[in-house]
TrEMBL record:
This is Glycosyltransferase. Residues 8-110 form the Glycosyltransferase 2-like domain. The keyword Nucleus does not apply. The keyword Transferase applies. InterPro entries: Glyco_trans_2-like, Nucleotide-diphossugar_trans. Pfam families: Glycos_transf_2 (PF00535). GO terms for molecular function: hexosyltransferase activity. It comes from the Bacteria. SUPFAM superfamilies: Nucleotide-diphospho-sugar transferases (SSF53448). Signal peptide: none annotated. Keywords: Transferase.
């Protein structure tokens, strides 16, 4: 019986042919090849499935998975056999061939130091309108800093042990926008992550991105998610509320239609 891979990379697809090639190439180029690649497809009718069929290596394909992105990600987690799971969507790609090796080393170094971690995250490089946006500064992680909104955890650059999902649960399938924040709040309350202060993943910010469209609804859902967990750090949540109101007013003003 073959050994289980270190990494399970989950890529959710749906008519992703326009961007999937970059995703596949970035995974294929990794110097660490100790991974399986799981594709969760929502019923693509373009060339997506043909591209995946031609993609070499250790892969699995789950077809016609409906029910939204949270369910698709959870299906990938359930199918994963690796110790460490990453979600790399078909819009995104790894920022160089050494990403998996760097992440594996971070897990190993934490264990050697006697402080093993259940999750590791890094920064992202944002690709917008064909140009790379400089990565945001990454303050050191603390649960209170994350609750208050002073630090962020970019989902495309997060790597989580499967055992941690088994302990705290998976993505909330009732959520459309803030399912990752909900999970980080659950996970961060029980396990300190290791942070890699460099861009691990390139994230495409475009009009079709769920996180880019419907920004107002996304902010409102994020507020409701954070309110669920306010009892763990009430003062930090109060600071977040002030930030939320400021951002909400800004979004509302930007979306307001000027009167003629």
């Amino acid at each position: 019986m073959p050994n289980k891979p270190t990494f399970s990379i989950v890529t959710c697809t749906w008519n992703s042919a326009a961007t999937l090639a970059d995703t596949l190439a970035s995974v294929q180029s990794q110097t660490c090849q100790d991974f399986e690649h799981i594709f969760v497809d929502g019923g693509s009718t373009d060339a997506t499935l043909d591209m995946i069929a031609a993609y070499p290596g250790n892969k699995r394909v789950l077809r016609d998975v409906g029910g939204g992105i949270s369910r698709a990600m959870n299906q990938g987690i359930e199918a994963a056999s690796g110790d460490i799971i990453a979600h790399l969507h078909s819009d995104d790609y790894y920022n160089g061939p050494g990403v998996l090796a760097t992440v594996k080393r971070a897990f190993e170094q934490a264990s050697l130091a006697g402080k093993p971690v259940d999750w590791v995250y890094g920064n992202i490089q944002i690709l917008k309108d064909g140009k790379m946006v400089p990565p945001y500064a990454m303050p050191a992680f603390s649960y209170r800093a994350f609750v208050s909104g002073r630090s962020s955890i970019p989902h495309p650059a997060v790597f989580v042990r499967k055992s941690a999902f088994e302990r705290v649960g998976v993505f909330d399938e009732t959520l459309k926008y803030a399912m990752d924040i909900d999970l980080w709040l659950r996970l961060g309350a029980t396990a300190q992550p290791a942070m890699i202060d460099q861009p691990l993943t390139v994230f495409r910010d475009h009009a079709g991105s769920v996180s880019s469209s419907n920004r107002l609804k996304a902010r409102q859902e994020e507020f409701n998610v954070r309110r669920r967990h306010m009892d763990k750090a009430p003062l930090a949540f109060g600071i977040y509320c002030l930030r939320y109101l400021k951002r909400l007013h800004g979004l509302q003003a930007a979306q307001a239609v000027p009167t003629q």
